[in-house]
Amino acid sequence: MALQVSSRGIMASKVAPSARCAAVVRPFKAARCQVVAMAGERLRLNNLSPWPGSRRDEKRKGRGYGAGQGGTCGFGNRGQKCRSGSGPRPGFEGGQVPLYRRLPKLRGIAGGMGAGLPDFVVINLMDLEKNFAAGEEVSLETVKEKVLSISGRDATLPLKVLGSGKLTKSLTVKATAFSESAKQAIEAAGGKVEVVPTAAKWTRKAYTKAKAENPNYEADKLKKKVARLQAKGLVNKNRAAKVGKPKAKASK
Prior knowledge:
Number of strands: 8
Mean pLDDT: 80
Structural class: alpha/beta
Order of helices and strands: EEHHEHEHEEEHEHHH
Low-confidence stretches: 1-13, 21-25
Largest sheet: 3 strands, parallel
Strand content: 5-15%
Strand order of the largest sheet: 3-5-7
């Protein structure tokens, strides 16, 4: 007797129940159980199987102790770590003094404080002897061009000259600070030492005094800043022309 197959299986009207169960047509699914192909056997759909170890049974966590994975997914019964959310912050130890506060702190760069950071761009007499000719002028700008490549935070630091090495040339050295030995060596070689003052530190007392003496203190300060930037070619000319002019009031 021929079997009539529909999209849902075998027609139930013309097939015995025993044959109906054995001849049901099902869509193909990849086998979870490993099917080993014999040596020399050609790969077919019926002997394909995943690579050994690539497929694993899923762990059914939180489905009771009978599942073998714990009834609480390994998070315990109560507490902040058992609930949903981010949990305690990193380093928190339940209220006791945490480790990062118990450990001693280091000074300088290792401790994150400014005590270990440099205060000057440092240059020695041996650098002056090597990079400058007799009669030249030494300043922070010429040092940046000929001796050191300075960038970042160090670009804002003043220049200091130290006395390591020998100097035989007559130079005019402009710096914020000199060691005593460097100063004596420059003058002994026929050179000249000029101390460049640093920018005054801002204080509220000095600011109040300057504003009282000059009512246009803020405008003059802005003009000086724009002039410095214009010298470096960093300011738009049209925008610079508006500096210091009073703003026009909007008409109602």
